[in-house]
Amino acid sequence: MCFHEHVHGNQEKMGRIFSVNLEGKIYSCKHCRTHVALMDDIVSKSFHCRHGKAYLFSKVVNVTVGTKEERMMMTGLHTVADIFCVRCGSIVGWTYETAHQKDQKYKEGKSVLERYKISGPDGSNYWASHEAHVGGSDAEDV
User: Fold this and answer.
1) Per-residue pLDDT for 69 more than 70?
2) Largest CB tally within 10 Å, which of 13, 36, 103, 135?
3) What is the C-alpha radius of gyration for the chain, rounded to an integer number of angstroms?
4) The predicted structure's pLDDT at residue 19
5) pTM strictly above 0.85
6) For position 114, what pLDDT does the model report?
7) What is the topology classification, in CATH, of domain 24-120?
8) Read out DSSP for 12-39?
């Protein structure tokens, strides 16, 4: 029987958290600078959340995944889980477990990072706009 262990980039050993350090153009947690994603892994920059812009990534690291829940979003019903920085515990976005509409299936297994929660590759921060979308999350400019 073959067995593969899936590691999400974070392991705790004797109380110390080990995180993956990425190389390239990196997005990091705004609060503690822990690496969370690479610019090369952006699938879409046209997402929005309650606080403004959000980016869809094919892969994120150094996050813990919260409880799965059903959420009605702008693009329909999805099973999602919030994701948190492994080092400081700040919420940085959410991950898609299941999309219930066929045209939304491409989101499954991908994660959204809220732009105001992360620092960009050049160290820049995005500040939430007062005109930001106030309703649900997940709106896309198509």
Assistant:
1) yes
2) 36
3) 15
4) 81
5) no
6) 96
7) 2.170.150
8) EETTEEEEPPP-SSEEEETTT--EEEEG
